[in-house]
Amino acid sequence: MQNSLNDKPSTSAPALEVRGLRKSFGSLTVLEDISLSIREGEVISVIGPSGSGKSTLARCICRLEAIDRGEVLLMGDRIDGGRHSNRDIARLVGMIFQQFNLFPHLSVIENIILSPVNILGVPAPEAEERGMALLRRVGLADKRDARPSELSGGQCQRVAIARALAMNPRILLFDEPTSALDPELVGEVLDVIADLARSGMTMMIITHEMLFAKEVSDRVLFMDAGRILEQGPPEDIFTAPKLPRTQLFLQRMLAHVGRELVEAAADERRFSHGS
Amino acid sequence: MALDFSAIYPYLHMLFKGASITIQASLFALFCGLVLGIFVGAVRVAPFGPLRSIAAAYIYVIRGTPLLIQLFLIYFGLPSLGLNLPAFTAGVIGLTINSSGYVGEIVRGGIEAVPKGQWEASKVLGLSYMHTMRFIILPQAIRNMLPAIGNEFVTLIKESSLLSTLAITELTMVGQQVRSVTYASFETFIIVGLIYLVMTSITSLALQYVEKKWTVA
Ligand SMILES: Nc1ncnc2c1ncn2[C@@H]1O[C@H](COP(=O)(O)OP(=O)(O)OP(=O)(O)O)[C@@H](O)[C@H]1O
Ligand SMILES: [Mg+2]
User: Fold this and answer.
1) Among the four A11, A170, A198, B179, which has the fewest Cβ within 10 Å?
2) What is the residue-wise DSSP string for A113-148?
3) CA gyration radius for chain B?
4) Residue B48 falls within a domain, yes or no?
5) Quick check: CB of A55 below 6 Å from ligand 1?
6) DSSP code per residue over chain B
7) Domain contains B192
8) pTM
9) H or E stretch at A161
10) A91–B140: do the CB atoms touch at under 8 Å?
C-alpha cells in the first residue's frame, strides 16, 4: 500500500514518511535507519534521552541538515535538496525551535508576515489580516507591534508558532518548545499546541513534558541512540512500556517531572482495574 | 618659550579650506568604502567558495599593507600601466579601497555574530540565502557593527593626512605650507591637530547618536 515515488500526492499518502534515514556527523552516527510515518491530522510525540538524535531527526525532516541515506517524503513528495527550494519545503513543513529564534529587529506582526509577503507573494494587507487572526489564536493580538525583546519567553514561543502557521504548512515540527521556558510559562504554550492538535494539525512534537505528551498525542515514539526503539499509543508507552530501556528512561523522567505522572498513571490503573 | 598664535591668524582661512578638502575626501571614501566594504564582507561569508576566497584575499592584502604604499601604487604606479589619475582622485580611490578592506572585515565579524538560529528560522520559513541576508542578517549585523564602523570613520579622517604625500592640499598639507611661511611650527600644528580633533569628535558624536537611534528602534 506504499506509494511509489512518482505517485501524485494523494489524501491517502501519509503527511510525513521517513524511510531508512541515516545521518552522521563525521564518524559519529546520530541516526541509524529511521523509518516512520505520520498520517494527516496525527499528533506524535518523540521522547528519549539527551543525545538520542531527536533534534537531528526533526532537522533532517525540514532539511536544516542534509541526510546521508534514506528519504523523507512530505505529502507523498520526496524531498530533495536539489529539486526543492527553501520555499517549497517551507510550504510543507514548519519548525518551532526551543530558542524561538524570533527576528529581534522586527515587530511581532513583521515577524509573522515577512515570509508570506516576501516569499509567498501574499499582498501585505491580506497577510497582516491573517497574521492578526493567528495572533488572536495564540492570544497575543495586543502584542502586534511589540518587539520580541519586550515579550516573555512564553509569548515569544506563541509568536513563533503563529509565524510558522502563517506559512500554512501541512506539518509542524516542535523541538522541545517549552524547554527554554520558566516553569510558570510552560502552560500557556502547551495550551496553544493542544489547541492546534484539536484543530487537526499534523504535528511531531519532541518533548520532555511527559504528561503533555500523554494527553495530546495519538502516538508516542521512544528514541534511543539514533533508533526508534518503541512506539505506540501513549497509554501503552507510558503505562506498559515493553523495553527495559524505555522503562528506565520513563523512571528517570518521572523523577524529573515529579510525582504527577505516577499518580496519574496510578489513577488510570485503578480505574481500568475497577471497571 | 611662549606660544604666539597671532602669526597664524592670517592663514586660518587656508587651514579651513584644507580641512574642507579633508572632509570631502573622507566623506567620499567613507561612503564608497562602506558600500564596497559591505559588499566585500557579504561575499566573504557567502557559501560560494571561489568568491569567498577572493574576498578573503582582498581583505588580507589591504589590512596587511600600509595605506601609504597603497596610495603610492595608485598614484605613482598606475601611470606605468597608462592610467594617470589626478592626485585627488587617486587619493580618494586609495582611501576608499583601504577603508573597504577594514569595513569588509568588520562586516564579516558582524554577520558571524548573528546567532545561527536566525539563519535556521529563515530557512524553515522559506527564505533564500539572499533574502535571509537582506531581511534578517544584515539589519542585525549592521547594528552589531556600528561601534566598529564608527572607529573606522574616525581612523579614516586621521589617515587622510597621508594624502599630503600626493601633494593634495588637504589639512596636513596646508599645515606644512603655513608652517613654511610663518615658521611657527608648534602653533601651526597645534591648530591643525585641534581641527582634526573637532572633526573626529563631531563624527564620534554623530555616530553615537545613530547608534542610539538604531538600538532603541
Ligand atoms: N552539528 C553537529 N555536529 C556534530 N555533532 C552533532 C551535531 N548536532 C548534533 N550532534 C550530535 O548528535 C547527537 C544527537 O544530537 P541531538 O541534538 O539530535 O540529540 P537530542 O535527542 O535532540 O538531545 P537533547 O534531548 O539533548 O536535545 C549528539 O551526540 C550530538 O552531540
Ligand atoms: Mg534536542
Assistant:
1) A11
2) HHHHHHTS---HHHHHHHHHHHHHHTT-GGGTT--G
3) 21
4) yes
5) yes
6) ----GGGTGGGHHHHHHHHHHHHHHHHHHHHHHHHHHHHHHHHHT-S-HHHHHHHHHHHHHHHHS-HHHHHHIIIIIGGGGT----HHHHHHHHHHHHHHHHHHHHHHHHHHTS-HHHHHHHHHTT--HHHIIIIIIHHHHHHHHHHHHHHHHHHHHHHGGGGGGGT--SHHHHHHHHHHHH--HHHHHHHHHHHHHHHHHHHHHHHHHHHHHHHH-
7) yes
8) 0.82
9) helix A153-165
10) no
Instruction: Please give the number of the atom of ligand 1 that sits closest to the Cα of A223.
Output: 21
Distance B36 CA to ligand 1 centre (A): 39
Residues of A with CB under 8 A from a CB of B: 62-64, 85-91, 93-95, 97, 99, 101-105, 114-115, 118-120, 163-164, 167
Q: How confident is the model at residue B154 (pLDDT cuts 50, 70, 90)?
A: very high
Of B117, B127, B140, the CB nearest to A97: B117
Q: Identify the CATH number of the domain in which residue B39 sits.
A: 1.10.3720.10
Write down the residue that cell numbers 518503541 correspond to: A230
Q: Which residue has the cell 594617470?
A: B84
| Interchain CB distance below 8 Å, A115 and B117 | no
Q: Do B121 and A103 touch (CB under 8 A)?
A: yes
Q: For B49-64, how does the pLDDT look when each residue is reduced to its tens digit (9 = 90+)? A: 888 999 999 999 999 9
Please state, rounded to an integer, the average pLDDT across all residues of chain A.
Answer: 89
Split into its structural domains, chain B has a count of 1
Report d(CA A190, CA A55) in Å as an integer. Answer: 19
Q: Is A207 in the pocket of ligand 1 (CB under 6 A)?
A: no
In a domain, B71, yes or no: yes
- A106-130 average pLDDT score: 96
The single-letter code of the amino acid at B119 is W
With a cut of 80, say whether residue A258 has pLDDT above it: no
What would the mean pLDDT of B188-192 be, rounded to a whole number? 93
Q: Which of A56, A91, A105, A149 to mutate to test the interface with B (most CBs of B within 10 A)?
A: A105
Contact criterion met (CB < 8 Å) for B126 and A102: no
Task: Give one DSSP letter per residue of A6-44, joined into a string.
Answer: TSPP-TTS-SEEEEEEEEEETTEEEEEEEEEEE-TT-EE
A30 lines ligand 1 (CB under 6 A): yes
Nearest Cβ partner for A86 among B115, B123, B135: B123
Q: In this structure, is residue B162 part of a structural domain?
A: yes
Min Cα separation A178/chain B (Å): 16
Using CB atoms, pick whichever of A62, A103, A105 lies closest to residue B124: A62
Burial of A176 (0-12, 13-18, 19+ CB in 10 A): buried
Which domain does B85 fall in, by range? 13-216
> Taking CB atoms and an 8 Å cutoff, what residues of chain B touch A95?
120, 124
